[in-house]
## 1
Amino acid sequence: MAAVHVAVGVVVDEQRRILISQRASAAHQGGLWEFPGGKVEAGESVTRALARELREELGIGFSESRPLLLVPHDYGDKAVLLDVHLVTQLSGNARGLEGQPLAWVTVQELARYEFPAANVPIVEALRSELVDSPGS
């Protein structure tokens, strides 16, 4: 089974809060919370896919991003490769354009939300990146 390549954005605002959204109940891993993003289309760069997905799902843009980590995960019924980028310098106001609930949370508050298994390494990386880094 080929892994689905997914561009994932850890969207961080000026207050160092992180944007998460809840997956639709009918979706794979439905009802759980996630970091926004979506499938990278054939011939599309990760940055371009991320820009497209954030615009389509949330109505926002960004002027800065950098790779954070790669997360391969096999759910058994689906394999994914999460290509995770830290996204800053936002433009626009995030809103759930697909009807999905959104939350802006601190890195400490992430523990209150249930995420798909593939997102656990992202949460762990954010603890190091945003809590243990200078300026936190």
## 2
Amino acid sequence: MLVEIPRTAAQPSIPQITADEASAAARAVIKLFEKWKLTDAVAREILGGLPARTYARWKTGDHGRIDRDLATRLSLILGVHKGLRILFTEPERGYAWVSKPNDNFGGKTPVEIMSQGDIFSLARIRAYLDAERGGW
């Protein structure tokens, strides 16, 4: 006998990332940027041009208010990390991938694309990894 599985609601019950979730994402991204061996300047550009003083506070754990744009960027960055962890069984290869030139990006590195500052560049890298792992 077939039993129907309850459907998931199309809209989440909590439509936005909470402050605690955004802060946790910020902590994870700071650690990820260390693994990717990014300079503070490049990290700040990936985060949409975050001011140097703000980023320095982030590194001490003081994240302050994280707006929707920044929370979306954090989510995309963590999605890139997730895609790399799925594609590479050795974490170090995934961390190194972001700094290697890629023909699919016109010979640029994924970090160069992501650090262009616009949110669409982050989404481009995320979508590429999702497609590579068959996530479409």
## 3
Amino acid sequence: MKYMIINIINDLWPTIFICSMIMIVLRISYIIRNKIKFDVFKELFMFCFIIYIMCLFYVVTFQDIDSKLISGYNLVPFREMFRYKIGSRLFFKNVIGNLIMFVPFGFFTSYIMRPAKLKYVFIITIIISFTIEITQTQIGRVFDIDDVLLNILGGILGFLIFNILYKIYKKMFGDR
């Protein structure tokens, strides 16, 4: 998993660098022009979210173009998930990877939608996950309902992590 993240960053660094410079220059110009109070934490958080989206886009569109199913889709829940031996490399890549891949999505979405409600994060995660899976069928990849289920679970986990950390933050620092 660690090497996969390093490979993604190695492949994407030029794109991340150029897009980052564009975003930073435009955002600073917007803040100065409109005399908006600069909140370092909020700006860094949103910047990280955009980088996460670029990495997510890369993972779901440019990796593993050869399909795992001949038919091009799996609509039977848990079929692909239980195909892998628990603890194997493929289990971590396909099952744990799809789960972990959407934890940041649930976390960032919860931050943006503060106070976050589970049903909204859940609905947004479903929409984005289905969008990704449908798009993948158009680029030579597979629609897999198991991926959708794991993405949703990851989004919910991200929501829960955000809310736990947010409650701790509010106890320690109040409502800043």
## 4
Amino acid sequence: MLNSQQNKFRRNFLSPFKQKFYYLKSLPIALFCGIKLLALDEHLSVTTVPFRWLNKNPFNSIYFAVLSMAAELSTAAPALLALNKVDADIAFIIIDLKAEFTKKAQSRITFTCNDYGKFNEALASLKQPGDTITVTAETVAKDADNNEVAVFYFTWSFKIRQGSLNTFS
């Protein structure tokens, strides 16, 4: 169950206006590419990216970097949601990325990640400054016809910064 801090974060991130403002401020290319976070809770995270002129490659499909950006957001959102449960200064970064492409992305692509529980569990295991843990999150990309287009695996590393308190709700 999400606490009040997590619910506030979730509401803010899902607000279309606040999402666009965040992209404009921190991730402008996501705004230009049309990436959107559609759903976020303790069960799933869903992002989408349209097929349009700006996003396409010479092979008439969505450029893999645009797909990777939307895929990353679908795993970053549950990581951020889980971090909002922790009262500690935690650094996090992607340390590995793997992708399997199975079909051309030639329509709106939707990414679904169901790994909030992995993030929540991993962060709860961090106890002392300097502790680190990694989580590999999977997100599945499907086209407008619900056909699988790709599967992405992002490995996130989390570390409690020195001098940080760590209390979990």
